[in-house]
Design brief:
Helix 14 (293-305) runs antiparallel to helix 15. By secondary structure, the protein is mainly alpha-helical. The radius of gyration is 28 Å and the shape is elongated. The N and C termini lie far apart (67 Å). A two-stranded antiparallel ribbon has the order 1-2. Strand 1 (2-5) and strand 2 (11-14) form a beta hairpin. The protein contains 15 helices and 2 strands.
Length: 365
């Protein structure tokens, strides 16, 4: 929770201090449109602020207006909000403020965020169905264990016959969950809080990033997603006349992956030693584990033709398609696995209940 003071001196509270990709691309798109109509930057920010739905982001824009009223440029004002604006955005805007092409720069940043948002939505939408199956499976298990089995337990206890192994296992599981339900909930919450805290540390981030890059099917999706974003970020930075070294450093931070950050740091060091970008990548990633051969070949075309604009756009489109293709392969495995888990529980329940009923029928007979 965050608190600020409004113009009347009253405190403003924010439950969520977050600016989404949608907020970002709408902000840059609105600002670009207003400036394209020859509206002053202060008037454009006022208009954009009134259109922003996120109250926390609206407050940050208001503070940027205050900074600019004291003769700060837009990029300088944005630097005072590092939790909202990344260095990549700031450097692009700073480079183009001096060239009087800020409108086009803002529009390109908006397009970049829009592509990232669409790519993330594609991933979320593809994983929705198997996740829903797993959620319903957990709910079904809890209903059976907490309500169905306890209601049948008196019937089983009155019988003097030996129950099947599947039935005994089901009853034991139900008793364990019922008797330790509060402890299980507390354990899950404690584990979640521990992971939430630990993932903020460098050790956990390194472990998690390496894990994602080592899982067979997940690896393809994650790597292609990173390569698609690298292409967009690299083009937008160098298009904004940001130097290659600074671009590489900003790109490796934007990957949000420790493994790729280390790789780009090594690549930047080699480029600083006057080696070509592609040659540096090949030296660091000799076996094309992190940069595919197609990716390297396309970048080598850029080095020969200086056509970074077209090459990076093609790379982004290509690896966006690769993400969708590798994601479809991942879902093809996740969906059957989720359905199989559901069937395993259904069969276990069926064998346990009907097996016990058959034993009771035989005893009565």
């Amino acid at each position: 929770m965050n608190n600020n003071f409004n113009k009347e001196g009253k405190k403003e509270f924010y439950l969520i201090k977050k600016v989404s990709l949608v907020d970002k691309f709408n902000f840059y798109e609105y600002l670009s449109v207003m400036l394209d109509w020859w509206v002053t930057i202060m008037s454009a920010l006022e208009s954009v602020k009134n259109r922003v739905k996120n109250p926390y982001f609206r407050k940050q824009i208001e503070e940027i207006q205050v900074f600019m009223s004291t003769w700060d440029s837009l990029s300088k004002a944005m630097k005072k909000k590092p939790n909202i604006f990344s260095n990549r955005e700031i450097y692009i805007i700073e480079a183009w403020e001096s060239s009087w092409t800020l409108t086009e720069s803002l529009n390109n940043i908006s397009d970049d965020f829009k592509k990232q948002h669409e790519l993330k939505q594609t991933i979320k939408n593809s994983l929705t169905y198997p996740i829903v199956i797993l959620i319903f499976l957990v709910i079904a298990v809890l209903i059976v264990m907490l309500y169905v089995i306890p209601s049948l337990l008196p019937l089983f206890e009155e019988a003097s016959t030996e129950l099947p192994v599947a039935t005994k296992a089901l009853i034991s599981t139900s008793n364990f969950i019922w008797n330790n339900f509060v402890l299980i909930i507390l354990f899950i919450l404690t584990l979640w809080l521990f992971i939430y805290w630990f993932k903020l540390t460098q050790t956990w981030k390194m472990f998690f990033d390496k894990l994602l890059l080592s899982l067979p099917l997940v690896w393809d999706v994650y790597r292609n997603y990173i390569l698609a974003n690298i292409s967009t970020n690299l083009w937008s930075l160098m298009w904004g006349w940001v130097t290659i070294l600074k671009s590489l450093r900003l790109v490796w931070k934007s990957t949000n992956n420790v493994v790729y950050e280390e790789i780009f740091e090594l690549v930047a060091q080699k480029v600083w030693e006057w080696k070509k970008l592609v040659d540096s990548m090949l030296e660091v990633d000799e076996y094309n584990e992190y940069f595919t051969s197609d990716y390297i070949q396309m970048l080598s075309v850029w080095e020969k033709t200086a056509s970074l604009d077209n090459i990076c756009k093609k790379l982004n489109k290509q690896y966006t398609r690769e993400v969708k293709y590798s994601l479809s392969n991942l879902v093809k495995w996740i969906e059957p696995a989720a359905i199989m888990l559901a069937w395993i529980f259904v069969l276990w329940f069926a064998f346990a209940i009907f097996g016990a009923m058959l034993q009771l029928t035989q005893t009565i007979g």
